[in-house]
Design a protein that fits this description.
The complex is a heterohexamer, with three copies of chain A and three copies of chain B.
Chain A: H1 10-23, H2 35-49, H3 52-61, H4 74-87, H5 92-131, H6 136-169, H7 174-196, E1 204-207, E2 210-213, H8 214-221, H9 225-238, H10 245-261
Antiparallel strand pairs in A: 1-2
Chain B: H1 5-23, H2 31-42, H3 45-59, H4 73-87, H5 90-128, H6 132-140, H7 142-160, H8 163-171, H9 174-186, H10 188-198, H11 205-217, H12 222-252, H13 254-263
Helix pairs in contact in B: 1-2, 1-7, 2-3, 2-4, 3-4, 3-5, 4-5, 4-7, 5-6, 5-7, 5-9, 11-12
The chains are: A mainly alpha, B mainly alpha.
Bound molecules: alpha-D-mannopyranose (3 copies).
Chain lengths: ~270, ~270, ~270, ~270, ~270, ~270
């Protein structure tokens, strides 16, 4: 169980920030995306708070599918740390739900600000100067980037204070909070499926003047039908004996190539 | 003009760093800056800026969302710049070279993201065996898959020359690159399915459906869905807390709660 | 060439069967097949195929949804084919004839669907009087309304000739056919209203509104609404079951449940 | 009450399938659409399970408004039989709700597959062959139709097994299931009103350059306002004394003709 | 508390109608729109039913933000009177909720009928006649207006009878009704924010061929983000000490001018 | 032709009344009627009708929603009519004058709606001090702000002449009129925020979000949102009533309610 003796210090939060800065996307992969980065960031704290079985359980929870914008996503880590600090592994499900529920919107906001607005403004200024041989715009952008870098550290601390507030106001109601967090998470996953899994059925039936686009017909039945069916299939397979996630990843990898080869799916 | 070995070394390192920079500190995360730095290394900052700026204009506002692979004109900028200087054929020649290199990098980006699933599986295994430090190491080894995905081709291009790109692009069959793209798009399904198995999804399956309907049928963006989810979560929360209170009341102060019922009407916020 | 009495008989039967086939086994439920069969009866399979195929192309993907009446080119195919052979004027002449016949059939289709409400009311009455077998018979008598709606006009056309169609179309006033179409569209209201009276609608009136909003305001297709409905139904189900459990708990094991309340926190899925 | 001695056999299910195949649309009518077909299909089972008052009640329930695609709609009959077999007339409301809730989506899916996709493919192949005097396409379509015919029989059995599963997992919770089924049904009816009742107000006010489309203005107040008002009117009238459904059908029939005559409604 | 001796008479209802007719929009203002009119209309009844503290409280409730179409909005006043007559100040929150919940839809319906349909029809007839020097159309419109004026009086009475029905059927359940009324009201306010507060960010970033419309980017983050932020700001400020609504109105007034001056907001 | 002092007086009163009429009884609430009446006052009803009718056609279907300010062609009609008669230059001249006057009135309309916030604040203060009659008076004083917002400019225009309008329009800077427009659009925020503080918003914050999502993301019109809100409110109502009943049952008739639980199944509506 949690040991109150080790309250998180400013240094601890900085350390989390630092680890996230470097690790968040380094082992980004198609299966669980930023899961390694998240895991790596919180690991020192897990080791401090938990032992043995409990540690394994918490590490497993912290290495589930995760994807967010790297710039503002540490907000979630801040909240996580605040909650775990107070509640320990009792909050396992709460964290799992919160992570899932918050990653979607923070990705959207972060990608818009840090992926679209800032690069477009700095890029166009810099490029027009650069074309005239003036390096000032390029330097300006680097300076902006340094300021942004500095700002990123704030999100985690913000998340930490919000998380602390949440958990304080909810003392004695962890069950209710956990349920609500999962509810939010599951709702977001429901929306994630049609958003993240972006495949089409390119098959077009043609005979004389008649063309029948398969994707159009599928949309009439249900939008994003193919992603839903694929998720259902994999979900179901994962419930079978002897099916590991490694096997599944190979299965889906080959499935993608095969279905693409026969023009059944296209990206 | 020929290229020196230390220049090759520096440019290879730059290619390695450029991608790591994007993934981490994001300081020189754009063709413009990298073009300029290549220019400095090659001793011709003006052409470097010109190549970088031109490529920059081609990717304005293009960004990688949800792990999609984009043409990598940052790596393109390095190669383009170098050949512009070596051949002396100027900026347009450099661009003509940078673009196919950038497109080739899409394939290698996909490959790196694939390769990292290996580390993911090692992490999962080490965690099961309660070896946190071994798992942590694997969370960083992606550095090399990512870094080399850019450094190696740049190195080859600088040493062996341009023709090799075309040759490689000719050898890789289209069905494979297309297939890998499809696989890349559907692989997140595995992560999502694992997550669904991990969460107590069945109890909340209705909310899964509601989130899906909002995104698929009503085209609501993610923040909107999350707002809806938060609203529903808060409703759920209030109801649960209310239940808790009722339980406590019903045992502690049965008589009082009944009086309240009879009194009926006095509103309290 | 003149037509034989046995050909008229066969073609009339074919018209009768064609509509019944569509409503039941759906084996020759298309102008192409019916055109071919008419061809066989008339001893000229090629023209039959040509007429059927041409009409077929005109109705590709057109289908009757929710009881809407469509131009019936299946019946059209029979008449068209016959006249093409009799007159010897070929496929285009046949089509020119088949189309107005198909359009005339829309009116008769509406009429058949109207006439069947009589059987519906007889069924309702017989059920009230607990006469199941009588009611069952009425569930099948539609065979004749449907069948004759096609067989009789085909018979008349083959015996009396083409002019009769035009005459009939001239006699029926437009306000009546238009009016019947509107009536056909709003008649389901009676069935829906009866259903709403039958179901305990008042208790679930909120869900009636939600379904309506989803379809009318948000243009969600039926499957989407049903998905939403299922999600809400499952939420309701969980809540009801929870209530059942609470009730049982509260009577059987008061002390235990209270301990649970104090313990609070251990999550169980 | 239900008599356990008569468990449904494969022959029973086949018989239901067979009756549905022939009767589903034969007495299709504007008032209750496929109600006669549904009633006819389940009648032998009703007679086996219920007597007297109970039989009348169940027959009445089974002859309410029903409309589905004839090809896949027997799925609902399968579920119905499985549930009634176990629960008898206690499940009356459950069945009423389920029928109403499932008919909409199954109509959509069935119409797309059996009404649009298959006929378009077979039809275009067949027509192009037919134009060249080749009857092969026409025969091919007949063969496809025979296969489809065969397949149709599967849906009822599938429904039966799903229904059995549902009712088993819910033993002792029939009230909750009933409520939920009705909830689903009522939701679908809410969506049925604007979908099935397709009338417009064609009235256009014109004075000089000014045109005022009545339907556009009505849409500003509420989409599908006219269908809603009509349903409300008929619902209300049905609650009056001496108003029978026969009177209502004549009323609506004449109403339609009159409103069409005065250009107040159009199809 | 309520005094049963003073049951509302027809004359009372007429008086309410009369006051609403004249006062509803006279002190219409940007801050609380029709609040003065509503307050003025119900004041005589408040004075009859309440004294001292209670009176102040009820007057405060009756002078909150309110906006409706003046022609059909008195329906709400009718409901209000019926409920207060029975329940007195216990119904304070119920009234607050109902007013807020009903004003939106009644505004929409009233504006369509009395603001769009009737003026368009009368106006086009009258104008075409007027252009030919014929005053008949103008007089016709005046007659129509008199009929409308007469009709307006009916809505209040209709509201009164509906309110009485509601409150009778709900005896002993006022808490539940109050909650539901507020729920409805809050939902409508949620929709009011993006509807009523109609401002855009006109800022467009331009560099060479690149243009970046700020409003487009903001919409990507969240539609109606600016109105939401502004409401949140004012809501938050109102919670501070020493912040009065008078100060807020000046603050927002000047804020609007300043933001418009710097092209940050436009109408 | 020159204008008489009693004509000026009558026309000024007409301008005052015209706006009050719109806000209250709505009998002559349109350019057509006001044009006609001005015509009567000026002794030339035909031109009055023509001016009014032309302006009427320009505002057909334009109406003020949610307190937005529209070009006021009613006031425009008065001034236009008068100058048409005085100058003898006919209808087109009158229109050319009425339009800028109508546009100027937008500014004064905004000003009147601003000025009334003063009465609002006095009402709020008097209520707090329990002075209902003083508050009531302030609810009517808007009569003068509204009335004079039209009467004064009309009076000035008739006495001083047309040039003054152009001068005023030239003096008021664009940034101020634009700014006032923006302020007018965002001022309701204060009222809404006060309302939100007044209502127990926190408890129902989820519904605030749902209403917002429906309007902002799904573009549902207000009546649709209200319908949804009513559906949710009724759901809430049923649940609360159910809870009340359970409480009463659980105390009054514990044994019976348990029997009901065990009985399970008999449906009751
Ligand atoms: O979309 C969120 C996130 O997804 C992936 O992790 C990458 O594409 C990031 O660049 C992006 O920010
Ligand atoms: O739309 C469902 C169903 O409605 C009616 O019963 C007919 O039009 C069928 O052809 C159709 O399948
Ligand atoms: O939109 C409702 C209402 O809003 C304001 O009060 C005015 O613009 C009225 O004319 C309008 O009817």
């Amino acid at each position: 169980m949690k040991t109150n003796s080790n309250k998180l210090t400013k240094k601890d939060l900085f350390r989390a920030n630092w680890r996230w800065l470097w690790a968040s996307q380094l082992s980004w992969n198609y299966e669980k995306m930023m899961a390694p980065g998240y895991f790596y960031t919180v690991l020192p704290f897990l080791k401090r708070w938990y032992k043995d079985e409990e540690l394994v359980e918490m590490m497993q929870m912290q290495s589930q599918f995760f994807n967010v914008n790297a710039f503002d996503g540490n907000f979630i880590i801040g909240m996580d740390l605040a909650i775990e600090e107070k509640q320990g592994s009792k909050a396992k499900e709460t964290i799992a739900g919160l992570k899932t529920g918050l990653m979607g919107p923070l990705a959207g906001v972060g990608d818009t600000i840090f992926g679209a607005i800032i690069p477009t403004i700095c890029g166009s200024i810099g490029a027009y100067m650069g074309l005239r041989g003036n390096p000032f715009g390029a330097f300006l952008w680097i300076i902006v980037n340094l300021i942004v870098l500095f700002t990123r550290f704030g999100f985690l601390n913000l998340g930490y204070s919000q998380g602390a507030k949440l958990i304080d106001s909810a003392s004695g109601k962890l069950n209710a909070i956990t349920d609500s967090a999962i509810l939010l998470g599951v709702t977001v996953v429901g929306a994630l499926i049609p958003t993240v899994v972006n495949v089409k059925v390119p098959f077009v039936y043609r005979a004389g003047k008649v063309t029948l686009k398969m994707q159009t017909i599928l949309n009439q039945i249900m939008p994003s039908l193919v992603p839903v069916l694929l998720v259902a299939l994999v979900y179901w397979l994962l419930g079978k004996k002897h099916v590991t996630s490694t096997k599944m990843i190979w299965f889906v990898l080959i499935l993608g190539i095969v279905l693409s080869y026969f023009h059944i799916l296209s990206a | 003009m020929t290229i020196q070995w230390w220049q090759i070394l520096l440019l290879t390192c730059l290619a390695f760093w450029a991608i790591i920079d994007q993934l981490t500190v994001s300081i020189v995360n754009n063709p413009l800056a990298i073009g300029m730095i290549s220019g400095i290394i090659m001793g011709d900052i003006t052409t470097g800026l010109a190549v970088g700026a031109t490529l920059q204009l081609m990717v304005l506002g293009v960004s990688t969302y949800g792990g999609a692979s984009m043409p990598d004109f940052i790596t393109g900028a390095i190669v383009g710049k170098v050949y512009a200087v070596i051949s002396g054929k100027g900026v347009q020649f450099a661009i003509g070279l940078a673009v196919p290199v950038g497109l080739l990098m899409v394939q290698l980006d996909v490959l790196a993201r694939f390769a990292n699933t290996i580390f993911q599986h090692r992490i999962d295994t080490f965690i099961k065996e309660n070896k946190p430090n071994a798992a942590a190491r694997n969370a960083l080894w992606g550095t090399f898959t990512w870094g080399f995905s850019r450094a190696i081709p740049v190195f080859i291009l600088l040493v062996v020359g341009n023709d090799v790109v075309k040759a490689i692009l000719r050898i890789i069959p289209a069905w494979l690159t297309d297939g890998l793209k499809v696989s890349g798009h559907i692989l997140p399904i595995v992560g999502i399915a694992i997550l669904l198995r991990y969460l107590p999804t069945k109890r909340f399956i209705s909310y899964l459906a509601i989130g899906f309907i909002a995104a698929a049928y009503l085209k609501m963006p993610m923040l909107g869905v999350a707002l809806l989810g938060a609203a529903l979560a808060y409703l759920h929360y209030t109801r649960e807390v209310e239940k808790l209170n009722t339980k406590q009341n019903s045992s502690e102060k049965v008589t009082e709660s009944e009086e309240y019922t009879n009194e009926e009407g006095e509103y309290e916020n």
